[in-house]
Design goal:
The complex is a heterodimer of chains A (428) and B (324). Chain A is α/β, with parallel strands linked by helices and 428 residues long. Helix content of chain A is 48%, strand content 13%. In chain A, strand 4 and strand 5 form a beta hairpin. In chain A, helix 1 packs parallel to helix 13, helix 2 packs antiparallel against helix 14 and helix 17 packs antiparallel against helix 18. The N terminus of chain A is likely disordered. With 324 residues, chain B is an all-alpha fold. The longest helix of chain B has 34 residues. Chain B is globular. The termini of chain B are far apart. The chains are: A alpha/beta (428), B mainly alpha (324). Chains A and B meet through helix 3, helix 11 and helix 17 of A and helix 12 of B.
Chain lengths: 428, 324
């Protein structure tokens, strides 16, 4: 233990020294810290960039392991007694389970509670805590429920950004009547296929029924068969299950990968005009269309209010990381990941919003992400992605039912009754 | 370096330990009365293997069976609840039905095509080269095969360039063909996944059956020809009965492979759109839902399904032994 403390002290000291701009002191003992998460492609590049200064400073190597099936891999690693040092978590819904199983290390002595309280909004800290104990921290966040569009194309076709849900539906009808499919939707996402559909349903419920109902829903205090929930499904279905409203028809909705789904929107001529997705999609679009200028060729508006009462409520999501093995190296990395310095690196590379208040708006690389960050900071009411708040079995059933609904919208009653059955089975 | 040392230890150490064990056993045995030695020796020699089987096969199997009668966390007894769930949940019934499809179609297609290819290959000089080509997919991991075929079945809306081989080929061959999202429409999607399995395994069947065909004695076929048998009759009444035991073994292997099918389904559709199979459900119950009881019940169901197939093979092997 004492050697552990010494090493820890050395690591901390070297971080502090360097953070203060002191000349490079002797390197800490080094070592490795393993990280398990879902990032791949450009997200992984950004994560690597984010930890690079940490590696250079401390001599600690960050060993990254990626998976598309995080919940399953994490479970098997924990069960097998070989958890990674640090892992991203599937969602806040799973922290309680993992904390109860003593798989997660409490972060009380790891990150500084006082600076956390200064730098993070209460919501983010609460979402990462169980019973008042901090178990995990957000390293990046996203604003959900945004409708992306190409302002130049929309203007050229004579359409305008709608201010209400009804106006959005009217716009949808007008575009369809003009011979183009209004929406691009893609729900495929490997083992998590269906999640983009749940985003639609969530934001439509939040806009129509408000945060209180939304919260009762994911806590299963109202049944899935509740009219408010059914209405949200049907609003989503009005668009997604109408072959005249979606590019490629419903089979494209089901078979298209979420990351590629919006690409036809920026094609010439556009194959669709609207795409609902979180802030991170901007990064995907700009990698595909490097010439697209944010603001001129790409922009977003939040899904407009359905009940004007709940206009300001925003839906957010984010990547949480927790510590599964208490080593000096993993402590050092956790402490680094919560800093504004670390998070600003990912922010500057695009595709991420930071939950840390000290990351300045000026750090955002373009006007769109800056505006999204502004909305996030100013939102009077923020609610986390509901499916991520549910137990895993519930989340998985929700994803699956949403896919089935697009394939067979007539079965909505059956599907909701089935989800209610799963919920009774799952919330224990 | 870190890995070489333990690896060397295992390579050298394991045989050394085995030899030491046998030497020690023999030394002990020398002290026993000579009349008993013959009775005890086989058990002593077999003991390490039996211990391994007990620890790595028998114990996990029994513990899985016990688990299947317990609750999600594996603590409380719940009787038959997990089995009742398996036979009541429409999703699981769908998965069971898909396993039946896999069992019937996959087994018939791999053995049938394998046999056809073996017979044809046996009749040409470049037969071995043909077999090698058919066998190639076996060199791929099933996950890689699944990913590859996912691209083959890939869909783009009409008007966009088709990157999926199947849609592109169909469009080139059939004028006016509209691309289809193959993997979302049951029951065709399950058949297409079975086709992936057949693609992987047919080469294995063909190779084994080809070897069996080669071992049919020439005297036998020559005698049949002398007796005036045509090629069809020769095949149906002489060659196939001779290699029947091999066909049975290959069919058994394929049947069991079909029961435990998982990778291809997991990678391509993850069981969505009515393509789920029992092994994939088992994985989900275990690792996603963390319901150990249900996962155990599904494992037991798969074991039970494989049981009759295994029993039939064992009985047939015994019967053949008796004939010799």
């Amino acid at each position: 233990m004492s050697t552990g403390r010494t090493a820890l002290a050395a690591v901390t000291a070297s971080i502090l020294l360097l953070a203060a701009g002191a000349p490079a002191g002797p390197r800490a003992a080094g070592g490795t810290v393993s990280v398990l998460a879902v990032w791949g492609g450009s997200e992984l590049d950004s994560f690597r960039a984010m930890v690079k200064p940490f590696e250079q400073r401390t001599g600690i190597t960050v060993q990254y392991e990626g998976t598309r099936d995080l919940g399953a891999v994490l479970t098997s690693r924990i069960q097998g007694g070989h958890p990674p040092d640090i892992a991203a978590l599937p969602g806040p819904g799973q922290i309680a389970e993992l904390a109860r199983a003593r798989a997660l290390v409490p972060l009380a002595g790891v990150v500084d509670a006082k600076s956390m309280a200064q730098e993070y909004a209460r919501t983010w800290i609460d979402l990462g805590s169980v019973g008042g104990t901090l178990y995990s921290v957000f390293i990046k966040t996203a604003l959900k429920g945004l409708v992306w569009y190409d302002p130049a194309a929309l203007r050229a076709a004579g359409y305008r950004v709608p201010a209400t849900w009804d106006a959005l539906l009217a716009l949808t009808r007008r575009i369809a009547a003009g011979g183009t499919r209004p929406w691009c939707i893609g729900l495929e996402s490997g083992a998590a296929s269906g999640w983009p559909a749940t985003d639609w349903i969530e934001v439509l419920l939040l806009r129509a029924a408000g945060p209180a109902v939304y919260e009762r829903w994911y806590l299963h205090k109202i049944p899935w068969t509740d009219p408010a929930i059914r209405t949200a499904w049907e609003r989503f279905g009005t668009i997604a299950t109408n072959p005249a409203y979606v590019y490629g028809g419903t089979q494209a909705v089901l078979a298209t990968n979420f990351a590629e789904a919006p690409f036809p929107m920026l094609a010439v001529p556009p194959r669709c005009y609207l795409h609902l997705q979180a802030t991170f999609i901007e990064d995907f679009l700009r990698k595909q269309y490097p010439a697209a200028r944010p603001g001129a060729d790409l922009d977003f508006f939040p899904v407009p209010a359905i009940d004007p009462h709940f206009a300001g409520a925003v839906e957010v999501a984010g990547d949480l990381v927790g510590m599964f093995r208490d080593t000096p190296a993993s402590r050092a990395l956790m402490r680094y990941l919560v800093t504004a310095e670390a998070q600003a690196i990912w922010v500057r590379r695009g595709g991420a919003l930071s939950p840390n208040r000290k990351v300045r708006l000026a750090d955002y690389p373009d006007p769109l992400s800056r505006r999204a960050a502004g909305i996030l900071v100013a939102a009077p009411v923020a609610r986390f992605d509901a499916s991520d708040m549910m137990p895993q079995a519930m989340q998985s059933a929700f994803y699956k039912a949403a896919l089935e609904y697009v394939r067979n919208p007539g079965r909505v009653g059956d599907l909701l009754a089935g989800l209610e059955q799963t919920a009774r089975d799952t919330y224990r | 370096m870190e890995r070489i040392v333990p690896a060397l230890l295992v390579v050298v150490g394991a045989p050394a330990a085995a030899a030491a064990y046998i030497a020690a056993a023999e030394a002990m045995l020398a002290r026993a009365p000579s009349s008993r030695q013959r009775a005890i020796r086989p058990w002593l020699w077999a003991a390490p293997a039996l211990a391994f089987i007990a620890v790595f096969l028998v114990y996990p199997a029994l513990s899985t069976i016990a688990l299947s009668f317990r609750d999600a966390a594996g603590h409380r007894w719940v009787g038959l609840a997990n089995y009742v769930f398996a036979f009541r949940s429409p999703e699981l019934l769908g998965a069971l039905w898909n396993n039946v499809l896999w069992l019937a179609i996959f087994t018939a297609a791999t053995v049938g095509l394998g046999l056809l290819i073996a017979i044809l290959a046996d009749r040409v000089r470049y037969g071995a080269a043909c077999l090698a080509v058919v066998f190639l997919p076996m060199a791929l991991s099933f996950t890689a095969a699944g990913v590859t075929w996912k691209f083959v079945y890939e869909f783009r809306p009409a008007g966009a360039p088709q990157i999926g081989l199947l849609n592109a080929a169909a469009r080139a061959a059939i004028p006016g063909f509209l691309p289809r999202a193959w993997l979302i429409a049951p029951p065709l999607n399950t058949l297409l996944l079975i086709a992936v399995g057949v693609w992987i395994w047919t080469g294995f069947c063909a190779a084994v059956l080809f070897a069996a065909l080669r071992s049919v004695p020439a005297e036998l076929t020559d005698a049949a020809r002398v007796d005036g048998a045509g090629e069809a009759r020769l095949l149906g009444q002489v060659v196939l009965p001779t290699i029947a035991p091999t066909i049975a073994v290959v069919a058994t292997t394929m049947a069991i492979t079909s029961l435990k099918v998982f990778d291809v389904v997991y990678v391509t559709t993850n069981g969505n759109f009515g393509t789920d199979v029992v092994a994939n459900r088992m994985y989900k119950e275990m690792f996603t839902f963390q319901h150990f009881g249900r996962a155990g019940a599904l494992a037991v169901l798969l074991l039970l399904a494989a049981g009759p197939v295994m029993a039939a093979t064992v009985r047939r092997l015994r019967a053949e032994e008796a004939l010799r």
